[in-house]
């Protein structure tokens, strides 16, 4: 019985959509109408209504199923013409039409009875080739055919077409224009007005109308799509991301997801243009096109860029102010799998902040698997600015080479907002004053499993992070801060009544230019700022200085913090721990971070965070390593994994596929690390003597023979 009712409900939904979707052919005499099987530019198959252009009055309409649907069209006609173009159904639609040939004149078609919802309106506006051009002063011109779409006499959009057409070929901007319209309530009228300007040579034409009602909950975007541009499938995906976002923003409860294929998308041609994220919608990038599940995408291969570089590609000063905007969004809102680049917020407020992303007015937004790079603002929040009462979270994100003239090279937190950053990397960000990566003067900040490296606060405090103000508090758990610089406190600065808690973290080789003791170059408090540090490595730590429980100083013994290229702050840097690091299994089991951002998407926000910065399991108990505070968790952002000796390609097995990487690791370690970034040459320590060298060759052969090392 329930299955029967479900089928009935599905059929009813389909029937409603078919009834409210319509094909309308505007004719001279009504003798030539396309067949039901002809979908035209919208790809919409069904009954074609026959509307006579020269007549006035109202005509009842039918849906795609040929049944009267309660809609009607009222004509304020002008005149009609026919100019055959080709043959068949294309000619049936385009060969006769409503024609306006007088200057400063117009023709109107008003459709009533449409139910609330999102509609895509296709307007066929073309003069066939014989009439598509005119001469003025011996110069040949193409007619510019113009129209306006109105909802209850309020303009929704303007559209135009121009240029000759090819029989049988649909080309938006020549044969037709398409706009999207949200009808929010019953009783509203949709009007299509075609018109001419004051020129005696201008003409206007309307060949037909298709009305497509959207019932789908997902939209598709692919800049290389060649289909009908409806956004309803990969084949007919929208080419412009703004079209999909506009649809979703206009229908707050209809659309749940927008899937975006790889490529470069820009928000528009004006500096105020921005990608506005719809509330409650998951906008997902990283698709190749053709996938049927988000789990099939690979955003590292199918790179999807939201690019603020408009105008002159060389001139950064004309880029958009905010590449992405999220305002008043609900907690269900997500942006996932994109690279947000080249925003330039160099205007006056608020266009002097948040060049990559501007979050305000209760913006609840989850940002996952995204990269922010090359964004700059003249004031604060080079990559992201957060204001109002907002609570965004950033999970598995990269912030690289963003900058701010004053505060927060990557992120600036203000107002009564909160900020969660989990399992993310912030590197090479720059602030002219305070907070090279993050600056907070508001609310609560939670930083978990994050890497901060080579961030700079040029003239102020907190090369990596700065917290300032009596209403500022937060926590940092299992993070790594290395090689950050500032005038005061290269690592973290807590000032003016701010209160912060640090545990399970590693501060090493952070520097400042003020001559502070080494300990205060890592963590500095001033003006009644307080920080509680426990179970952490702090370079230069003293009991009389930072104090706290379970803290120590020393070298964390990272694998290779400069990476094979010898340059700090690049993507080949390796901050995993060596097997003799004092940071192994050192974190406190009582202070482990909870998965409040639900990084694994299982809905359990009370569990211990399951992943480290690299996406590996967070709690790995290493044999022979003492759990200092009854916990198998390492200090810092990266958890040391159990080694499988001889597994040189890190595929979980020891076999012949490990021979070439073994040789490469011996002869060219840099090339090996670049090709296998998640592996380490120490896997080749097949004689288990703590180092990898030629003495491991014979034992490696034994490992291969036994499909594993003894």
Please tell me about this protein's structure.
The chain is mostly beta strands and 710 residues long. Among the domains are: 199 residues, Galactose-binding domain-like (Jelly Rolls); 50 residues, no CATH class. The protein is built from seven helices and 55 strands. Strands 17-18-21-24-28-32-36-40-44-48-52 form an eleven-stranded parallel sheet, covered by helices on one side. Helix 3 links the parallel strand 17 and strand 18. Helix 5 packs across helix 6. It is elongated and about 95 Å long. The N terminus is likely disordered.
Can you give me a brief rundown of this structure?
9% of the residues lie in helices and 34% in strands. By secondary structure, it is mainly beta.
Break the fold down into its secondary structure elements and pairings.
Layout: H1 2-20, E1 22-27, E2 48-52, E3 57-62, E4 68-76, E5 79-82, H2 88-94, E6 96-100, E7 106-112, E8 117-124, E9 133-136, E10 139-142, E11 144-151, E12 154-162, E13 176-183, E14 190-195, E15 204-206, E16 208-213, E17 218-221, H3 241-250, E18 257-261, E19 263-265, E20 275-276, E21 282-287, E22 304-307, E23 324-327, E24 334-336, E25 339-341, E26 344-345, E27 357-360, E28 364-368, E29 371-373, E30 376-377, E31 384-386, E32 391-395, E33 398-400, E34 403-404, E35 411-413, E36 418-422, E37 425-427, E38 430-431, E39 438-440, E40 444-448, E41 451-453, E42 456-461, E43 465-468, E44 473-477, E45 480-482, E46 485-488, E47 492-495, E48 499-503, E49 506-508, E50 511-512, H4 518-522, E51 523-526, E52 530-534, E53 537-538, E54 558-560, E55 574-577, H5 659-667, H6 669-675, H7 697-705
Parallel strand pairs: 1-2, 17-18, 18-21, 19-22, 20-23, 21-24, 22-25, 23-27, 24-28, 25-29, 26-30, 27-31, 28-32, 29-33, 30-34, 31-35, 32-36, 33-37, 34-38, 35-39, 36-40, 37-41, 38-42, 39-43, 40-44, 41-45, 42-46, 43-47, 44-48, 45-49, 46-50, 47-51, 48-52, 49-53
Antiparallel strand pairs: 1-16, 3-4, 4-7, 5-6, 6-15, 7-14, 8-13, 8-16, 9-10, 11-12, 11-14, 54-55
Helix pairs in contact: 5-6
